[in-house]
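Question: Hello, beginner here. Any chance you could explain the protein record under this note? Any guidance would be welcome.
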Amino acid sequence: MYSCQNDLPDIQGKHLNILIGERRFMRTFFYLSLVCVALLMTLCVGHNEEVITISYQPSWHHVALFVIVEKGWDEKVLGKKLKLTAFPSGPPQMEAFAAGQHEIAYVGAAPPLSILAKGFEAKIVAIANTEGSSLIALPDVDYSGPRSLEGKSVMTFPPGSIQHTVLMKWLKDNGVNVSKVTIKQGGPAEIREALRAKAVDFGFAPDPAPYVAEVEGYGRIVVNSSEMAPDHPCCVVLMREDFMKSELAVKFIALHIIASEYAEDPMNKEEIEGILKKWLGISDEVAVRFPGTTKLQTDPRNEKWLEGLDMLCEVQYELGITKDVNGKVVKLSHEQIVDPALYEEALKVVPEIKDQLGLG
């Protein structure tokens, strides 16, 4: 005879399995939901559609960026605000850039080489300036040429920076025994304080730091980078390749061109000095020295500049700084790291944007 009681354990077991399955599904769904929320939050933090994220350094090499913001040209032309983050030097700036924190960087041409060698997708799309750094000596330290640094100490930006690269090349080109030079690293503030405290004999830093040292009396300029490596590349506009595909990329480069021209115009000198005092915290005595030895340029197609960029690639290769993802030292060339196409497109819209800004 058939008995319902005999099948009861099977029925209960099936129900139990169904309940367990449902609970596992709900738990999995819950965890997946948390992951999705976390990813969305990460994307929202990493990419804010209301702003364009840009990193820079406290130097008047980046005056074009300051002009764009101060004049409100970002919102007028791009329809977005620029969100700026300052860094003391290029190497830490590039760590943040490689982590996806910024879409554009105003940075020396040398620091990006280390991340580009590893395959990071970004390109130099414009020049910001050439030259514009100086060797600063303590008032009572003798200087008669490059060999004066033997047995002395000098503080400059970290390895991989423009300043470190130019300094090392200059020392080697002049037969200086680098092992007899104590090279310390730091940003503008550390170099300033080291010179003030007489903790080093020399400092090598970008404008306006050398002029601050002279005005405040704790150092004197003994040689400019224009003499150490004439026409050497300095700062550039570096852009992530995903942003390069944006319709705003060309307009931003056009603004950079316009702002550079505006900063160079003698008619705007007083206004530019005011902008620099605000952004860099410098005195009137320092601001009036703008542009100093800094040469504002924008065109990345300049042959002499491209040769200089290849020189930086060569020096960083010799120093063992540019390594691929496997740790192998590699030598880059300007063909791999510069994309002039957007600049060429930007030149076409400069007149239109100038009219929009009332500069036509």
